[in-house]
Amino acid sequence: MAGCRPGAPGSEQAWLEVAQAFIQETLCPPGKEPDVQLAQLVIDCVKTTWLSQGTSQGLTLPLSYSFVSVKDLRTHQRLPCCSHLSWSSTVYQAWAQEAGPRGVPLPRERLLLLGTLTDLSGNLEQECRNGSLYIRDNTGALDCELIDLDLSWLGHLFLFPSWSYLPSPMKSPGEGHVELWGTPVPVFPLTISPGPLTPIPVVYPEMASRLLRYRSKHRNVQPNLAGNLIRFSALVKSQKKAYFVLFLGGSSPAGTQVSVIVQVPAQLVWHRALCPGRAYVLMELRVSKLPGHRYRVWMTSTSSQLLPLKPECVRELELELAGVPLEADPQSLPRPSSPQDKKRPGPDCLVRDSILLSYTGMVTDTLNQPAGLYELDRKLELCLAYQQFRGLRRVVRPGVRLELQDVHLLQSVGGGTRRPILAPCLRGAVLLRGFSHQVPEIQFSHQVPQASLYEQLVWEHQLGLPIYLWATKALEDLACKLCPHVLRYHQFLKYSSPGDPSLGLQILAPILEVLIPPGCPGRNTHSEILEEPHHCPLQKYTQLQTPCFFPTLAFLKEEAKRRAWASFDPKTLLPLPEASHLPSWQLNQRLAWSWQCLLPSAFRPAPVLLGILVPSSRKGCLQLRDQSGSLSCLLLAQPLQPLTDPRLIGCLVRADRFQLVIERNVRSSFPSWKELSTTDFIQKKQARVYVQFLLADALILSVPRPVLHSATSSTPPRTEPSPPEGPHIEQSRLFLLSHKEALMKRNFSVPPSASSEVPQPTLSFHVLGRWLGGTQRKEGTGWGPAEPKEDENSDQKVLLLFLGSSVRWFEFLHPGHVYRLVASGPPTLMLFEEGGSSCVSQHPLELAGCASCLTVQDEWTVELASSQDIPEVLGIRPTLPESSLTDLLSGNFADSLVSFSAEIVSHLWMKPGSSGAVRRCVKLTVALETADYKFPPHLDVYIEDPHLPPPLGLLPGARVYFHQLEKRVSRSHNVYCCFRSSTCVQVLHFPPDTTVSAPLPHIYLAELLQGDKAPFRATASCHVVSVFSLHLLWVCAHCTSICPQSSAEVDEPLTLFLWTLCTSFSVLRPMVLSFELERKPSKIIPLEAPRLQRFQCGESPFLTRVNPKIRLSCLSIQEHEHPNALGALVSSC
Q: Is the pTM value of this prediction over 0.85?
């Protein structure tokens, strides 16, 4: 810092001239003649202190030092520093090494600081006194801290030879404080007041205690109280007044103790001068009774003084106590408890008692400064939150030595805290015993205002220490998730008021409501300090089981992947009875896709989902984002109710009920089921992680908009073009959405002059709708009347094209709802009619019945129309059109586009060449819901490129609405459906949290002849009567690959052996078969009638009716438990 240095550093005369000018400006009374005597006294004081170091190198004046005023120190010194006038460089180096290897020592500046030590901040009014100390000169006042204060120093001018200055971490103008290391040097000699001419009459604690209880003629006397200081409380500051309580006792620790309340503003500074164990005299006390307190107490008056007790200067006052006691004798104040006084609670005890003790140690780490959490001696934690430690917060940092009087020791508090905790309540005191040599740590995450959320949790919400420690850890995790890009730290941790709630408190509120018992009484500060037995929030506690935690989205995603692959076991996905009969291609096909759903209960402790809801224009889905990354999500407002309100974009979403879904895709080449435990056959694996939940189960919190750009923007920020000249207004138009097409990559024609690059497919979707009225303009907070149309009977249908950044609206647009398209900019005529049919060719517009196409610009927004915006004559009611079951399963191809809702039964990835698939696709088997069928009919839905990967949420157990699927019929007369560009999918229900697999129905094979009344999957007890074909796969013993082979001859020994085996009773035996129909039930063609067929039994021919063959796909084979019970069933097989 640039101080008031002389122009010629080597000239003593120049230094003296600068010093005299500084003294006149900052120390002399303003408006008076220069005080030569004061200037000379100051210079002599500096010279004497400078020469006391013994290494002045012949210099009588510290020419390298410059004077600094309070104002200059506050405004120009931006970095922490220290100054030691009487120290040599060697002494300073030794002092700096005490900062330790982890700390950075305070840098040394050569500055001279002078000022008056006072407890008045600025003016001379007593109301401004709050127990703080200041250094004051003509330029202002500066907060200071002093370890051992002598009250006789107040109001005197001092030179401070050793001090350190720490500016405010909040960089607020005029903040910062000075820490006074050494004893200040008085500029004027301090006058020593002579003792009293006559001994002071005093009463001792025992007599003072009796005076409080007896009605006598001495009750109005203001006695002087003498005794040893046993302890004193913390300084309590409220909106009305500030006070503290000191306790005086006799020479014996077991004697009577008397409490004295000090609340006169001019006497609050006594709190800095008191030292337990010393003897004092309190002059002119008075008796008072506190509201809500049982007994009367002693209290200082405005004329009271605090004097050191000198036995030769006092005499005991003899008083005669007569009359009846006013009240019963209260319990005497016991001495502070020691660890031996209390019995440690056993492990089976739920409620534990803290231990009251005293402790002296060094702060070794700052855990959370605004929360009042520190580390002591590398082995304990210190919590100062249960005292009003605002002034102490700026001093306490690593390297500070503290003496804790009557502090609570809590062990095994839980909530993620493992070390013992020391926490003082209002009864105890925290005394400074040494300042830190280190520069304060820069913790931007802890830059919070004075009245922060942490204080509110303790003083208003009455949190116990275990819950408070968990809450501070949760707020710290939340700050790491959201600050500073989503929120500023002071916004997140600010004091919560009814009109301005704190975001941090809103997030924690649902958990705190469960943890905090109802009707918890507030803290009574007087009772907490005065009453015995002692009662405070720290006296009793219960070990807390961590209720939940707030993981980052990146951690949640990685942990989901880790658990999904850790639990991936092909043998579990394909149980042995089922996998043992599957060929290689079918084995790998069933392993190609699998999924896992993790609920919060699967974690310990349970996670709470938290993030900013933003749409992704790159993926076209919604995402939750925080500082660590993003997580795709699928949301429903309620079951059967989609997400329609775009105002949710940018809101903070908190959910403790959700499904964390992991879809696993595996490319493998297992030759058979025996190699399922060999991971070498897995060539590639990847996972898609997303979360799905209901908004009804979530807490939606609005976030201040100015700080949301980095969190909600799906693309990097770019330089915005300069706005066009002219006024800017908002224009909008209502439209009713009737159909939404699939989100996919499409090709668009680009004018030849637009770009030389080859156009690439662009992620986009189309919306078909109808305008409701004309264009409206913003008027105040609402919308003005719609502009009249030239032809009200003209076709209002429009095709809206969303591409680029505008695809972010995809998840909010649903058929049957009314939306408002909003554009901001200069007034433009025919704004929503521009574009005509230039976006797409005329033929699709003619097919859609639209006259025009409009491309939605990136900067336009979409809003959900309010009820007053929608014309009443329309009576709009969103419905989901569905095709009838007859049309869906019939052979009528007049309308090949069908819509229906169904529950997904299975999800299967199919590779090219497997089961007739020409290219890779996803096969969904869905169960249609109908009351006409005992067993719901099943249908296959195929999803192929460019619709891959499939939309989120297509999971077994989910109920989904499919709109405009293309219906097809296979050569085997099975009905199936395929995705096309006009298809739209909407998830109606998520899979249930707990899936209970119902057993397959057990039927007779003859029941399958009932056609559409037969179940899709079932089990049957049957008998194998013949084997049609047998296919062997030869696996190399070295590389485990399948060897090429040709067909075997009939007369080969192996063929004969297998023929014999297949006709033996080892194969032709009873079994329990689980199967599914290879052909889905449908009404496309009637079932074939039984045909007459001739059989030969010996020499007798038989003619009987034979039903058509039914093709089944085997799911599993099990041995029958009672083979002899199958006699009646064999004939039906």
A: no
